């Protein structure tokens, strides 16, 4: 069973890198030492994310932190016979030790969405959690690449930037909002509608990470499909935007998108590790500091490198009229979310 799971995940990661012969999965013999810390590792996203990162041969040291429950999670995944050495840390007094020496810090900490709850409803609780954790990151591992999963990402990334600025440690190349789940959903939904193998599909998703701020660019999807009508594209766009709500409602009050989010988080963290290790041509979509629009933060394709962001890429060759309209429509909401995060950080 173990070998099947590991082979399956490694195969998936290799498929994602098939565009370049250099984008292979490192073996544990050739990969440098890399420490990954997961903050919120005992939660619904954190536990499956811990499992997936334990299976990643690029990880040599896996630190699992939460306010409770992490010794058990660490003991559980620590028995898996893969490269990463696992340690669990509990409570604020152990946070520094969890973070020290980290190359990548992944933050899924916070409360999950519940039925009827928007990402904005999560703001007051999760904003305080993110601010506290980022204050510790600035102190204990200021050079780490930070992968922000905690919602609302459109606000928590700006909060993190302000915390790091205040601490004098901000490096815009090392702060990422993880929007990979939007890409994963867009690929899945597009493949199903266009009737093409999902493993071959690529769909860039730009904008932000909530509702209408999520803008999948199906006009740039590969392989291209001539069978999709405008109404199909509109339906695919709305389903991608409402993907989180679809899961919350399907779970009927008993959870949100945890498993698919953990998968997406593991995919993005793997890309960051490859970039840090010098693998060329690693490109993923992410919510980062950006100048491709008038907004200070924006999700688009990003080339990853040894220092985090190597290059923020643009919106691609062209947008359809529908996508141009969507881009203009998302800007006011995204701008307000960014400003809300900045104001929170400055006022608290």
N- to C-terminal separation? 49 Å
Oligomer: single chain
Question: Order of strands side by side in the largest beta sheet?
Answer: 3-2-1-4-5-6
Give unreliable regions as ranges. Answer: 18-27
Our estimate of the beta-strand percent is 15-25%
**The biggest beta sheet, please?**
6 strands, parallel
Structural class: alpha/beta
- Write the CATH homologous superfamily of the largest domain: Lactate dehydrogenase/glycoside hydrolase, family 4, C-terminal
Q: Considering DSSP H and I runs of 4 or more, what fraction of the residues is helical? A: 40-55%
The CATH architecture classification of the largest domain is Alpha-Beta Complex
The counted number of beta strands is 11
Tally of individual domains: 2
**Count of DSSP H/I helices:** 11
CATH fold name of the largest domain: L-2-Hydroxyisocaproate Dehydrogenase, Chain A, domain 2
Mean pLDDT: 92
Order of helices and strands: HEHEHEHEHEHEHEEHHHEEEH
Rg from alpha-carbon coordinates: 19 Å
Large-scale geometry: globular
CATH class of the largest domain equals Alpha Beta
Protein name: Malate dehydrogenase
Catalytic activity: (S)-malate + NAD(+) = oxaloacetate + NADH + H(+)
Keywords: NAD, Oxidoreductase, Tricarboxylic acid cycle
GO molecular function, one term: L-malate dehydrogenase (NAD+) activity
